[in-house]
Amino acid sequence: MAFTLVAIFLIALIMGPGPGSLLINPPGSEPKFWFGMPALYVWAVLWFFVEAAVILVAARVLWGKGQDNE
Asked: What is the pLDDT of residues 13-52, one digit of tens each?
């Protein structure tokens, strides 16, 4: 489970603001719009939510195992 979460998080780091952004908005092209917002912004926010979901799952499932609920 931990390896899968790390892999998903690393893919999200690459696809979000990094080289993945070139997939939807290549240099020299007209800016695209999704849902009335710039596609690059929507793309980055989407991958931010993926990263946040991975952190929440890790906090509830992996990191919560070692603590006693008092």
From this structure: 988 888 888 888 778 888 888 888 888 888 989 999 999 9
In a domain, 49, yes or no: yes
Residues 6+ apart with CB under 8 A from 38: 31, 32
**Among the residues of 1-70, which ranges form H helices?**
2-15, 21-24, 39-57
Q: What is the largest CA-CA distance in the chain?
A: 58
Does residue 17 belong to any structural domain of this protein? no
List the domain range (segments joined by +) for residue 51.
33-58
Alpha carbon distance 67, 63 (integer Å) = 8
